[in-house]
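A further point concerns the way the authors explain their paired sequence and structure data. An entry of this sort, consisting of the sequence and the corresponding backbone structure tokens, reads as follows:
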Amino acid sequence: MKKILALMLAVLLLASMTACSGNTSASGKYVIGICQYMPHDALDAATQGFKDAVEAGLGKENVTFKEQNAAGEITNCTSIISSLVSGKVDLIMANATSALVAAANATETIPVLGTSVTEYGVALGIKDFNGTVGGNVSGTSDLADLDKQAQMILDWCPAAKKVGLLFCNAEPNSKYQVDKVEEYLTKKGIECRQFGFADTNEMTNVTTAAADWSDAIYVPTDNVVANNASSIYDICKPKNVPIIAGEENTCKGCGIATMSISYYELGYTTGEMAVKILKGEANISEMPIGYAPAPAYKYNETICKELGIIPLDGYAKIG
């Protein structure tokens, strides 16, 4: 009997110690880590949407965010994620592909939600990806229909015979997008050439080569391109080469038109997924990749005027 009592006391003591050990989720308080790959409008909007959804679902007073920005450096993503894992956060939100890859490699136990990631199979090296990552990883995708984006080039630039595909080849999802667009355009009889640059140091020369060769240029959803969109336009404008952009914030800087999602809504959807996971209402290993609401067709009024291009019907002006 004494042994049983001693065992019960030991269990109670252990439970008491566990309750005081900082297990925030057990008390309805949560610590969420955020790693954003770089600062630019689209990723900023996704992070804000995520935080707003989490606070709406859990209560602002119940959430602490540990938010850091990697400033476009992959090594910084690794360091940030490592610190979040060491800090035993309850969930990690990885904003953009590099952040997602770092998080997926760093932990198999802490739930990881990606956002602003185009194709998870490409990002994580999953063959025959079926829409669900499994394990401790899920998230949302910013992928818009690439065939429709490719068709936009034909619609807006019907005289174009040569289309340059400009992207940062350090981002595997950018390569995925331009491959798909090239495949579509090639079937339509358009000559395509890929112009990939490794980083901002190579961007100017590669963009100049693309502008010299191309009748029109396509830029995908690409973080480095988005962060340097105005510089890209400065190179292409004197040569009168129009650009179709993969997302709205890039289009604001260099494009004539885009078919773009709302990154705020994408982040919000990710935040709603986080709430379900933390409340125990969903198993992340079974959560398929989510998507933002239907994309919108938009045009850049300023750049269209500068290049003498008349906007097509069915496109809304970027605000």
